[in-house]
Amino acid sequence: MDAYQRLEDHFEELSRLGEVISVLRWDDAVMMPPGGAEARAEQLALLKRMHHERLVDPRVADWLDAAADEELDGWQQANLREMRRRRIHAASVPAELVERFSRVSSKCESVWRTARSDDDFERVTPHLRRVVKLKRQIAAAKAEALGVEPYHALLDLFEPGMSPERIDEIFDEVARFLPELIEEVLQNQARQQQPKPLDGPFRVERQQKLARRMMEELGFDFDYGRLDTSHHPFCGGVPDDVRLTTHYDEDDVLRGQMAVLHETGHALYNLGLPSQWRNQPVGMPRSAGVHESQSLFVEMQLGRSRAFSRWSAPLYQEILDKSGDAWSADNLYRLKTRVRRSLIRVDADEVTYPAHVILRYRLERAMIEDRLQIEELPAAWAEGMEELVGIVPDDDRDGCMQDIHWMSGLFGYFPTYTLGAMMAAQLFEAAREKFGEVDEMVEVGEFAPLIDWLGETIHSKGCRLQTDELLEEATGSVLDPEYFRRHLKRRYLDA
Amino acid sequence: MDAYQRLEDHFEELSRLGEVISVLRWDDAVMMPPGGAEARAEQLALLKRMHHERLVDPRVADWLDAAADEELDGWQQANLREMRRRRIHAASVPAELVERFSRVSSKCESVWRTARSDDDFERVTPHLRRVVKLKRQIAAAKAEALGVEPYHALLDLFEPGMSPERIDEIFDEVARFLPELIEEVLQNQARQQQPKPLDGPFRVERQQKLARRMMEELGFDFDYGRLDTSHHPFCGGVPDDVRLTTHYDEDDVLRGQMAVLHETGHALYNLGLPSQWRNQPVGMPRSAGVHESQSLFVEMQLGRSRAFSRWSAPLYQEILDKSGDAWSADNLYRLKTRVRRSLIRVDADEVTYPAHVILRYRLERAMIEDRLQIEELPAAWAEGMEELVGIVPDDDRDGCMQDIHWMSGLFGYFPTYTLGAMMAAQLFEAAREKFGEVDEMVEVGEFAPLIDWLGETIHSKGCRLQTDELLEEATGSVLDPEYFRRHLKRRYLDA
């Protein structure tokens, strides 16, 4: 057997182990009673250790070297490239450091859970300092192996092909136009008719029924996945068995429904990955940003469009058994495109969301590059919020303690949310050009051409291309924030 | 580190892997959409291969040898004994044979699924012949390692300490008194008041509510487990996260409820295993027969008693919103103790059930010992049914093709159902002696003393003792079929 074939066999096993971990995590969040927590943690720790051991197996390095001289087609070469990248991320960090980091970040996360409720940033400070210190060591180790700067090395795990310099360029551009645009949008909204609130309560069974219907209309096949509920919505499972979750609020039907649209975008990506490369690195989603672009394509570009509200308003009325002005397409659209300066990222609208992300990106990069100390975080947070969002939190609970990411050791991920939003806008504009009257299609619920086009241009490509190549093939251009600006302007100012 | 400690670490990992397999199997039966089947089969195959590889690891043999000379307490010695047994079952069979058997039995099971519907035994014959042929090779390999006869070696996996000679003795005794006892019971029933049918349909949500209430009253803590639905009821999960399932029939409320009682008996055993030996072989259930004794203690001894019907009748009435004669304690009791000569084992009552099991035990032992050829099975089945149950099937679908066991390669398991029934009767009689007025306790729903006593005498013992020692400590006697005969006589003839 040649080295490349050995690699495929080896990475297939790794993928199966990853699938098992994914199913157990879904079960953890959706099904598991509290008594199972301890055993589950041990099960996951064992599986992750097995996964890691297999990835850093010295034979993999030998096979990767040998396979470089073998005759491979384009997909196989891309597969090899992705195998190499995965291995570098796993093998460049000493096992002892990985383990120490895992302990320290678990501890920090658990302290944070109570410290956040108590608004006690000081309690979390020493733990977060330890997390950042070890993360910097991890970043340094990966940086050396990848030949890039430390923050770049962390970013590479989630958004390969993207550099901090390019993000600076893009985010600086957004930071230049966004504060002014937010102000204009708010003034514009103030002049327009105010949305009427939707009067609940909304029974969970009806919300579920509505959610399933939306998913089906978008092409989700329940023979290949499930919809359940969990505290935070997510999309898990495996490519032929995608497990979506949402959270139903009895007083706010839009919240759960928009989360379902978002997760359905993620799900359609997973369901559409190239089946002939299933369980190979090249058959997996391109990046966190591209994944987010698919969820935001469905939620933001499609789901919050005026046309989608026209199509979905009768469904809301019928399934929730509601009528009246509040349930008109126009009112639903106004509710779904409401812009506010707000403190909490996860509740932010699509206009202010990038401001939240840019703040986090700048701060986390500064922490990794040792330009910002943990005790300076609250002040830097307030300053950044003032500049970017135009609102300042009264406390740390709704400030720098609101997100789990840093507390659990996740650095380099935040930018992908906004990169995804930009890709989504760029893709939707390309779809508009390709199909012409997209709004007319959406108004009658003709989503299949759009979803099929995403399938052809994005989902079925897996990791065959780099992100910029992928976008260029799909839209004629590499990532360009101008599409996003145009989208916001069109939806929030020109209408 | 000493050899024994290495073994504990190693078997802990094995147990964690086993837990993961158990959770995935539960998910498979309860949650998984059909599209996930292929990936799940691959995940399970990988995990089982990893489990097997770790169990046959040559270092385990060395550690087992070395640990024999180390100073160990009683629990540790019992642990070592169970480790040795597990390893013999895994290591004595050549890997190539295990794999061939797995393929051949999967094929046979899948042919059987359609052949059974078509009542086409000939179609399944060549496949079952292959299964039995390989199973005989497996039995021979294990027999050599264990120093026992081939069928004994198969039995040892499920019911260690039990020999075919002892089963012969016990089952021959039962076969002597049972046909006559069945006849007497039927005549007795014919003279008594006939039970009134329960008029449905019964909404699944109400059946669920009733089932949860029963489980809670029996001491099941939903912080440590779940109740769901699946095609066939089962009890899975892990000791702190026990996953029960049942199947609700809208027209037959007793069916689902009795299944829940049965599975709750299994669940309480798992929940009560010794926590300080969790994830060690000695901390696991003693045997298939002992496990079945716990389910049958709750379902048959307790759940079908007159006292339990007196206690539960008001709950049935209240939660199902029913009233009238059919819902009286007496009528429910009559329904739950109805005896019939029937063709299908899984639907059989507790009086005729052993007859079904004895038939299967005799036939499967004859197949393994090459005294019965596959093509002779239908005739032997009819003859045995006539002799033991007193009724003969018209076709093979409801005859020798009704059970999945042989088709999927499971031999040596059937006897444990009836061994469990006997242990349950023996345990209940011991409880009656210990607590005196057990019926009075059950009538007022005072189950805790009984369940706690099972916890002390059975659940918390894990595999510390051999089955006969366990029974002798709990009841003052090794397994004795006389308890079972007395139970049947008391419930079905003397009342």
Structure description:
The structure is a homodimer of 495-residue chains. The first copy, chain A, has helices at residues 3-30, 37-56, 58-67, 74-91, 95-117, 121-146, 150-158, 164-191, 204-217, 253-271, 288-303, 306-320, 329-336, 353-368, 377-388, 415-435, 438-443, 448-457, 467-475, 481-494; strands spanning 225-229, 235-238, 241-246. In chain A, α1 (3-30) runs antiparallel to α2 (37-56) and α11 crosses α16 (415-435). The first copy, chain A, has a domain at 159-495: Neurolysin, domain 3 (Orthogonal Bundle). In chain A, a hairpin with a 2-residue loop joins β2 and β3. The first copy, chain A, has a three-stranded mixed sheet with strand order 1-3-2, sandwiched between helices. Chain A is built from 20 helices and three strands. The A-B interface holds A 13, 16-17, 19-20, 23-24, 27, 31-36, 38-40, 42-43, 46-47, 50, 221-226, 237-241 and B 13, 16-17, 19-20, 23-24, 27, 31-36, 38-40, 42-43, 46-47, 50, 221-226, 237-241.
**CATH architectural arrangement of the domain at 159-495 in chain A:** Orthogonal Bundle
Elements of chain A, N to C (H/E): HHHHHHHHHEEEHHHHHHHHHHH
* Number of DSSP-assigned strands of chain A: 3
User: Any idea of the CATH class of the domain at 159-495 in chain A?
Assistant: Mainly Alpha
Largest sheet of chain A: 3 strands, mixed
Percent helix of chain A? 55-70%
Strand numbers in spatial order across the main sheet of chain A:
1-3-2
Radius of gyration of chain A: 23 Å
- Report the β-strand fraction of chain A as a percent range: under 5%
* Oligomer kind: homodimer
Poorly predicted residue ranges of chain A? none
Mean pLDDT of chain A: 97
* Straight-line N-to-C gap of chain A: 62 Å
Contiguous helical run count of chain A: 20
